[in-house]
Fold each of these.
Amino acid sequence: MSAPLLKVESLTKHYPLARVFLKRTTPVVRAVDDVSFSVEAGETLCIVGESGCGKSTVARLLMRMLQPTSGRVMIEGTDIAALGSHALRAWRRRMQMVFQDPYSSLNPRLTAEQIVTEPVENFERLSRRQRKALAADLLRKVGMSSEMMDRLPSEFSGGQRQRLGIARALALEPSLLIADEAVSALDVSVQAQILNLLLDLQEQMGIAYVFISHDLTVVQHIGDRVAVMYLGRIVEIGPCEALFDNPVHPYTEALIAAAPVPDPTRVRLKAPVDGEVPSPVNPPSGCSFHPRCPLAIERCRIDVPPLMPMPDGRTVACHVRAPNAPAQLSFEDSLRTTFMAQF
Ligand code: SF4
């Protein structure tokens, strides 16, 4: 079997804070903690979770816009987290990023032609004719007319600007595109157009996507697999359909329960989870979801649950729901678990 296009192993990013007077240890923000996953060529992996769960930090670590505290980011077998700036520059051709805000991610002084051809001109010199031909081709790929190439970003709508951002990302023909909340700043109808454009481009060019979003409807539309993050860790990862039809981790279940239902006649079977996400500076011991989890047992307060494979191909980190759940729950815990599982 060939190696995956992207393999992330134990990726960790901690930010040290200012040291507290008379305290021996320096507090750290655990933005990303021991995250591992892989992405095959032409596949879409979506990363979901509440604000502050670390999904955008993962995106920046994948692009080496941030240096990881530890862990590896392997692209086609090469660990880009360990490359020097010169070697990294060549690898940057293989992966590109589309940003959330189509308004601030484009240089307002450059024309559409300059914006979309700039990545190529960072690597090679283009004649005027080559630049025009490349710009026309890239604009056509994202459904825009070549007649628009002399316009400035301020002359485009939000959806057109995001198309320009995608065209710029495609200029170097990357094998991996990282989209960080790429449609969340757009109107719903424009979101659908951009998502369909991304799906068409994937079919034509075989690009893999890491698609970061808090919007489960968007994820359901575009994803092949989904990784659910909570407080810097992946708690469940698996095929999109299986995960939405039958979530295993209590947090995945809560996220899906909290998503808006477009059908007013449909009744929610489960209540969304209560409470706030704890601080990543001082996360709860054991499973960091335990203060909010209706199934929590004593062990959850002590041991961090590892990601365990399930028979249907997904992996889940939960002492109660994953196959390595404790063989012997206390009588009280087993009663509580059986009772809560029915709601
Ligand atoms: Fe809930 Fe325990 Fe599972 Fe964490 S490990 S999700 S606290 S049951």
Amino acid sequence: MNKTIAVIRGDGISPEIVAETIGVLDTVAARFGHTFTYQEAPMGGNAIDRFGVPLPEESLKTCLASDSVLLGAVGGPKWDDQPPENRPERGLLKLRAAMGLYTNVRPARMFADLSAACPLRADIAAKGIDFVVVRELIGGLYFGEHRFDRLDGQERATDVCAYSEGEIRRVARVAFEMARKRRRRVTSVDKANVLATSRLWRRTVTALAEEYPDVELLHMYVDNAAMQIVRDPSQFDVIVTENLFGDILSDEASQITGSIGMIPSSSMGDGSRGLYEPIHGSAPDIAGQDKANPIGTILSAAMMLRYSFDRAAEADAVEAAVDAVLAAGVRCGDIWQEGCRLVGCREMGRLIRERI
Ligand code: IPM
Ligand code: MG
């Protein structure tokens, strides 16, 4: 297999975790006889510094011409004063939209060896956490009009939330298909007691469910879902929801598994090309100190192997190597516990590579 991977090295700790992940991909390539070619695609704060914009045209072209895209994280306080349309985050949103990545998949799985890091009560954690948040990624409030104007002598702001049936159906379909490969339960999260977009969401998902009689469909209001995720996460298999609700619930879901530093994500559209990134941020406070946990990004590369390149064995090998390192008691600072061996980003990467 010959694949071109666009690499967004990003800001803060991102270049460190991306470097370890490329090392892992190279190890996979050597062991399984593949060739990965990497193309740099600067994005985020570093791109603002060098090119004046968060997503240079060249970078977008590189991503669109690649077989898949690997990203660490972008942003940081250094760029907080940028005008809204030139913030690092805007580069990411533009990239998601330009690549047509309407489905964002964020697994929330508790690693057996990390159950001590779970902030939930032991009897709740003991029931297990293994669900997936499927988040709509290029619609809703994020992509509606954002406007400031004046009304009655005061400043006023407006954000528009819109969804079409098609936008809802295509992401819901991904959730139903995924549930078929898991425990066959979809929980659709909305705010249909208040919002028009949520009413359409619920109606559309319910209609689509007729094509999936083997999958159980439940509807839940987002406030209740936020509560149920900490009350009894074992009830969830696949959660499907709109962009903003998914942003919020996926952070909550990742934290209850123990560490946000461990959770990968994939963003995909209609084709096989995806964007793979950890769900954590750029952690500027520990940047350049070899302290970051590269596992979220390494597991994102495993998702790339599985979903974009259709290589389950290679993905399994990476995930098994991560499990083996954790089982051996090796930890980065974010997941360190008494009696474990504390390692930095580079050593973590090396130990994972050694086990592939
Ligand atoms: C995420 C992030 C982004 C989002 C930000 C950085 C724009 O929080 O990927 O969840 O809100 O989608
Ligand atoms: Mg977020």
